[in-house]
Design a protein that fits this description.
Blueprint lengths: L6 E4 L16 H8 L25 H13 L4 E4 L4 H17 L4 E4 L12 H8 L5 E5 L6 H9 L3 E5 L13 E3 L15 H18 L14 H10 L6 H15 L5 H9 L9 H18 L3 H8 L3 H35 L11 E4 L8 H12 L3 E6 L4 E7 L6 H11 L4 E6 L3 E7 L3 H15 L8 E4 L10 H8 L13 E13 L3 E8 L6 E5 L14 E13 L2 E12 L2
Parallel strand pairs: 1-12, 2-3, 2-4, 4-5, 5-6, 7-8, 15-17
Antiparallel strand pairs: 8-9, 9-11, 10-11, 13-14, 13-16, 14-15, 16-17
Helix pairs in contact: 2-6, 3-6, 3-7, 3-11, 4-5, 6-7, 7-8, 7-10, 9-12, 10-11, 10-12, 11-12, 12-13, 14-15
Keywords: Coiled coil, Exonuclease, Hydrolase, Nuclease
InterPro entries: DDH_dom (IPR001667), DHH_sf (IPR038763), DHHA1_dom (IPR003156), RecJ (IPR004610), RecJ_OB (IPR041122), SSDNA_exonuclease_RecJ (IPR051673)
GO molecular function, one term: exonuclease activity
């Protein structure tokens, strides 16, 4: 199998970088903002008062009305969450927020993905009913739980659905549905994730309670939950449009000041990050995987308990357990990735002959890790990928990851419409989805999925394009600019971290830590030797040392080692030119 080199292009400017409001900034930073449509730093939207009003989110008034009844009648509330980081933070924010507002009885339940699957299923309702709740609130799930909500209703349990996933043709008959992506919702920040949605519900509930004199004029400060809101928002890789940037920025400021949950501070410690220098990418690449590992391999309850824990020492013990689970997850993932690459190699196909929509299956693959596997393979072959693992008797479960231009959930919907009965169930959003099919239908589904991708994409769409912020002059390689870029975000999906490209002389290369490529490079035509590192690259660029020049796509970063800080290039792509 061969994979074509990507096309590397400079990100086009959306506004004039010479705009007067950008004139006081470093020219590189001004260009970066201009390429992201920002002609005034005020547009970054970092202040809480700039958040969109909750009144625009459909379902909030109905949810608040039902919650007021629960408060007045001292009813028991059960949160039903999801088993990823957004689900864990959503569950924690719901439990903590309701406790702050004065709920006497609030507990949570997260379905074990291997026993019950995703969402408020009828089976998980039966489990929930054992604790005799008066009200169930779903977080980060529920919009597709038609049968589960109906079962709860039959048992006399009211349900409030809070979710952000795309709605199907039918909505559950809940007493309230809060979801910015449901039909008829005018809330413009459609990218708000599960933890953001429940946070908005809590804000509206606090205001309603305060108007009724519930707090004697001293309402609790729900901003104390923003560290978890920031973590869940970054972890779910939702677009960091202006509203989400405000949530993430405010959460980061609280973390840096040490005003975060003990469990989150403990996770930062075990991940080797510095709390006072935390950035959004640390949440996404260091903290979230440790929480996700619990849901992938065991039960997300340990992750939620870590976030709920008030005692730092106990939280640290749980964080270390999560860290160990993450190490185990990485080992499983690496083995599965190697098997997947071998499977592709056995096909003796080049990238022109690969299916447009690629399906992979192995009877020994782990259900909890196929999502990461699909993502890794997608990055290599740049096409929609679905990785399958064994499910219940006679079934296999798939996790799908897509590329720009192909909405994976809608694509699965189209396959289901053209081939009734082929998909047992599915759900998701533009870039990620989950599905279940009969094991015997894998070949038929693979063909149908490939045909649907071919209907929407052409061969040119499968050529990866990397958008960069251009080349840097040698004078720009400085700690000052690297620090400025760290603090200029928060960066994330659809508000990407600055990425640069350039040609360099390759002075040194070696493998460190068995899996990372350490380089020393010099800008072409320059005199400055720079350290660079490419993670998860376990071979030398060219072992025969015949190549003396390389082309890099990289980010500027500050490396901290044994108290010393130095400039370092974080390499995203490396090739010759």
């Amino acid at each position: 199998m061969s994979v074509s080199d990507p096309i590397i292009e400079q990100r086009p400017l959306q506004v004039d970088p010479a705009h007067p409001n950008l004139s006081a900034l470093d020219p590189v930073l001004a260009r970066i903002y201009a390429a992201r449509g920002i002609d005034d730093p005020e547009q970054l939207g970092r202040r809480l008062q700039e958040l969109l009003p909750d009144s625009q989110m459909k379902g909030v008034p109905a949810a608040v009305e039902r919650l007021l009844v629960a408060f007045e009648q001292r009813q028991k509330i059960l949160i039903v969450g999801d088993f990823d980081c957004d689900g864990a933070t959503s569950t924690s924010v719901a439990v903590l927020g309701l406790r702050m507002l004065g709920v006497a009885e609030v507990d949570y339940l997260v379905p074990n993905r291997f026993e019950y699957g995703y969402g408020l299923s009828p089976e998980i309702v039966e489990v929930a009913a054992k604790s005799q709740p008066d009200l169930v609130i779903t977080v980060d799930n529920g919009i597709s739980s038609i049968e589960g909500v109906a079962r709860a209703k039959a048992l006399g349990i009211d349900v409030i659905v809070t979710d952000h996933h795309l709605a199907g043709a039918e909505l559950p008959e809940a007493c309230a549905i809060v979801n910015p992506n449901q039909p008829g919702c005018d809330f413009i920040a459609k990218s708000t994730c599960g933890v953001g949605v429940i946070f908005y519900v809590l804000i509206a509930l606090r205001r309603a309670l305060n108007e009724r004199g519930w707090f004697n004029g001293q309402p609790p400060n729900l901003a104390a939950l923003l560290d978890l809101v920031a973590l869940g928002t970054v972890a779910d890789v939702v677009p960091l449009e202006r509203n989400n940037r405000a949530l993430v920025w405010q959460g980061l400021q609280r973390i840096r000041a040490g005003q975060a949950r003990p469990g989150l501070l403990a996770l930062i410690e075990v991940s080797g990050r510095r709390r006072d220098r935390i950035v959004a990418s640390d949440l996404g690449f260091a903290i979230a995987p440790r929480l996700n590992a619990a849901g992938r391999l065991e039960d997300m309850s340990i992750g939620i308990e870590c976030l709920l824990e008030e005692n730092y020492d106990r939280a640290l013990s749980m964080a270390r357990e999560l860290d160990e689970l993450n190490r185990e997850r990485r080992g499983i993932e690496q083995e599965m990735q190697q098997q997947a690459l071998e499977l592709l190699g056995q096909l003796s196909l080049n990238d022109q002959e690969l299916p447009f929509g690629l399906c992979l299956y192995d009877e020994y693959w782990h259900q909890g890790v196929i999502g990461i596997l699909a993502s890794r393979i997608k990055e290599r072959v740049h096409r929609p990928v679905i990785a399958f693992a064994p499910g219940d008797e006679g079934e296999i479960k798939g996790s799908a990851r897509s590329i720009n231009g192909f909405h994976i959930r809608d694509g699965l919907d189209a396959v289901a419409a053209r081939h009734p009965g082929l998909l047992k169930k599915f759900g998701g959003h533009a870039m990620a989805a989950g599905l279940t099919i009969a094991a015997d239908d894998l070949a038929a589904f693979s063909d149908a999925f490939d045909a649907e991708v071919r209907r929407q994409l052409n061969a040119e769409d499968l050529t990866q394009r990397i958008l960069t912020d251009g080349e840097l002059p040698e004078t720009a390689f400085s700690m000052e600019l690297a620090e400025a870029l760290r603090n200029a975000g928060p960066w994330g999906h659809q508000f990407p971290e600055p990425l640069f490209e350039g040609r360099f002389h390759l002075l040194q290369q070696r493998i460190v830590g068995q899996r990372h490529l350490k380089l020393v490079v010099m800008p072409e035509g320059g005199t400055l030797a720079l350290d660079a590192i490419a993670f998860n690259v376990d071979t030398l660029v060219w072992p025969d040392e015949s190549v003396q020049k390389v082309r890099l796509v990289y980010r500027l970063d500050v490396n901290e080692f044994r108290g010393q800080r130095s400039l370092q290039l974080m390499v995203d792509w490396i090739g010759t030119d």
